[in-house]
DNA sequence: GTGGTCTAGACCACT
DNA sequence: GTGGTCTAGACCACA
């Protein structure tokens, strides 16, 4: 499914959150699909079950997963995710900070534009895949 | 100089790092300018001096500041900051992740484009200021 | 009859209990009426029979249903339900807690009053229906 | 501060959440006030620190507390709490369910009204206290 | 000192 | 089998 980087300063559960989120957002995991059980993924990644559960719960809070106790954990359908304006402006701030940093590192405005366009194109790609 | 948001989940030292970086990148703090001393800023922000110390050290490590013992801490000139390709691609990853999330939250491609353009425009603004 | 919300954090058997209780209390199911058999409801809701069984048992315990072996499960007549003071004060506590929360969430006293009145009115409605 | 009921089917962390919420909503704990540290409360209640932390985190998610790592956990000011309509209608459902049950238990409409009024009055009481 | 993360392993309720 | 809770105890980063 994915691999952990134990050397990263990111905590394990955060890495799991990010990886699962990416799998969902790129369409590798599709709506209503069952995720590996807590114990199963715990074995696969050789990580404590509590850590997996923490990650799954965080993803639930963020609206990406839902859980049926006794049955398992599933990918939420995209319609369930509420267009949260606080979240959007939070992301905007992160983008702003990073674009500034790119500039300060010496990237020209054109280079930055081309980077952003590239990222937008890639978005279209996996958007098509999920069709 | 700037204000801290104690209710943020960001750690205090991280907020200081980000704020100082922003002041430098937007040209509010210009090259060779002296920063407030650790003790001074510690009083201004009513924050533990160790926390300021840690933030300054981090900024030094990232190349934004330099310290002369006995004199103080100063803003490094922009040329000192190496066009670091690892750093650039790291930022690219962050941008990618966040653009994906915007899309997944329900933003249309056009909306995302307009957000990015807005951020690029804003960049031009303070680019002019720093001239 | 009713639908389950698998994405709810409520357990399935609890949802069944609540739904059946509601149907009884609003008069949709009337006294002495036969409920679908465990197997039948299990098919309708595509839910494990054990889960239905557990819900029926709970409703029996609470006094809303009674079972005659070999015949089926039936709605108890309202007189069977004892005016249980412990139960009443328990509900009072729940109401108190939730009214407090409404207030704390920023609802004005008037708004809360109008909400409560609305709920009382609605009560009169289905009270009439059951006549 | 408060006591746990180990016999309750409510989980320990849930009891802590409810108790702290009540203390905040009744004004016993006021805005910006520091809560006992995780370890401290853990000793007071003779409960594992992880359990306390889980409760504090849940309260943070709900907007009642905020945390500064290394400093402690504090009561959020009421203005921070967003009037969440989903939450309000969720509470409305709970109220509805319980009012229905009161009626079904044999309470007259007048008795229910007087109960609700009593609860609204009590609200005014501690509202005054917090002035 | 504070909270944050993680492990190992146990027990419970629900499906 | 599934997730949910809890304990005991360790280690880390931050203030």
Question: Any overview of this molecule?
Answer:
Four copies of one chain form a homotetramer. In chain A, helix 1 (12-25) crosses helix 3 and helix 2 (38-44) packs across helix 3. Helices cover 57% and strands 6% of the residues of chain A. The first copy, chain A, has two domains: 12-80, Winged helix-like DNA-binding domain superfamily/Winged helix DNA-binding domain (Arc Repressor Mutant, subunit A); 85-129, no CATH class. The first copy, chain A, has helices at residues 12-25, 38-44, 49-61, 85-104, 109-129, and strands spanning 65-68, 72-75. A two-stranded antiparallel ribbon of chain A has the order 1-2. Chain A is mainly α and 131 residues long. The two termini of chain A are 22 Å apart. The structure holds a DNA duplex (15 and 15 nucleotides).
In short:
The structure is a homotetramer of 131-residue chains. Chain A has 131 residues and is mainly alpha-helical. Chain A has five helices and two strands.
Secondary structure: elements and pairs:
The structure is a homotetramer of 131-residue chains.
Chain A lengths: L11 H14 L12 H7 L4 H13 L3 E4 L3 E4 L9 H20 L4 H21 L2
Antiparallel strand pairs in A: 1-2
Chain A binds a DNA duplex (15 and 15 nucleotides) through helix 3.
